[in-house]
User: Fold this.
Amino acid sequence: METPTPPMPSLTILPETGPPKTLALYPGQNLLQAITPAGRDTITALCGGGCICGTCRVRVVDGDPGPMGEREAQLRRQLAITDPAIRLACQTHPPGPLSVAIIKPR
Assistant:
């Protein structure tokens, strides 16, 4: 008897205006990889997801974003990001459903 495949976690993007957008989050995929196909104008990532620029910031509204790695923690310190709800999409691998608001760079 086959073991049923667990459902993929969902990623819900909460825009400033308009309805939320829910996307599938595939195993091993980071938030940036999940969000980018939804439209290039949805999120900014000047370094392309290399954890160098910090422009792919999201605010976690609901759910567990997963543990923070050392690269993300180091860049957050350099950029003086102290709010624990703000994460870098290129480094965030949530283990389950997650809702985020995208923070546009100034």
Remarks:
- The mean pLDDT is 91.
- Residues 70-78 form the longest helix (9 residues).
- The longest strand covers residues 57-63.
